[in-house]
Automatic annotation (TrEMBL):
It comes from the Eukaryota. Residues 38-180 form the Cupin-like domain. Pfam families: Cupin_8. Coiled coil: none annotated. PANTHER family: BIFUNCTIONAL PEPTIDASE AND (3S)-LYSYL HYDROXYLASE JMJD7, HYPOXIA-INDUCIBLE FACTOR 1 ALPHA INHIBITOR-RELATED. It comes from Timema podura (Walking stick). This is Cupin-like domain-containing protein.
Length: 183
C-alpha cells in the first residue's frame, strides 16, 4: 500500500508541475494562414494545444455536411456510436469515496446502428435517452466513411510539413452540444 502512495505522490507532483509550467486552462483559437515553421515553433515543439478556426473553409464538405445530407448519403450505413449518460467519453471522471475523490477513466458504451437511427437519436432526445455521438479515434473518417473523403482533403499541408509526414489518423466526430471532448 505504501508503494501505491509513493506512485500517487509522484503523479500528483508531476501534475502540479505540468500545470504550473506549461498547461493552460484555455486552448488558444488561431486563424490561418500560418507557416509550417511558425506552427512548429509555437505549438508542436512546445507541445501546446491550439485550435485553428477556418483552416478548411475551402473544403466542399463545409456547408454541405448536415443531417439531411447524411440521411441522403449514409442512411443505411452501419456506424459505431458512443453512448454516455452525460456526454463524456474517453475522459477522466471523479467520484467521492470515504472522504477522498477517486479519479477513474470512463469508456463509453458503443452501439452499432444505422446512420439514420443515430441521426434520429440526435433529433429526438426523449425517445433515445443518453448522449449519442460518433467519436472513434481510429482514423474513422478514412476507414469508416470513405465515401465522404472526396469532399475533404486528406491533409492540411502546413501541418503535414511541420510534422514531417501526413496525418496518421483523420477523425470525424458527429454529435450535438451535449457531447464533450474534455472535462
Amino acid at each position: 500500500m505504501e508503494h501505491n502512495n509513493d506512485i500517487l505522490n509522484c503523479l500528483q507532483i508531476l501534475s502540479t508541475e505540468a500545470n504550473e509550467l506549461y498547461l493552460r486552462k484555455d486552448v488558444p483559437v488561431m486563424k490561418p494562414p500560418i507557416s509550417a515553421l511558425d506552427f512548429h515553433r509555437r505549438w508542436v515543439s512546445p507541445n501546446l494545444p491550439v485550435l485553428f478556426k477556418g483552416a478548411v473553409t475551402h473544403w466542399s464538405a463545409i456547408g454541405k455536411w448536415d443531417v439531411p445530407y447524411f440521411r441522403k448519403t449514409l442512411s443505411d450505413k452501419k456506424v459505431t456510436v458512443a453512448v454516455t449518460p452525460n456526454g463524456y467519453a474517453d475522459a477522466i471522471a471523479t467520484r467521492s469515496e470515504q472522504n477522498a475523490d477517486i479519479e477513474y477513466f470512463v469508456m463509453p458504451e458503443e452501439r452499432e446502428m444505422n446512420m439514420s437511427e443515430f441521426l434520429d437519436a440526435l433529433e429526438d432526445r426523449h425517445k433515445y435517452p443518453g448522449v449519442f455521438y460518433v467519436q472513434r479515434q481510429n482514423s474513422n473518417l478514412t476507414e469508416d466513411f470513405p465515401e465522404l473523403m472526396r469532399e475533404v482533403e486528406p491533409e492540411i499541408s502546413w501541418a503535414s510539413e511541420a510534422f514531417g509526414c501526413p496525418p496518421e489518423a483523420v477523425n470525424l466526430w458527429v454529435g450535438d452540444e451535449r457531447s464533450h471532448y474534455i472535462k
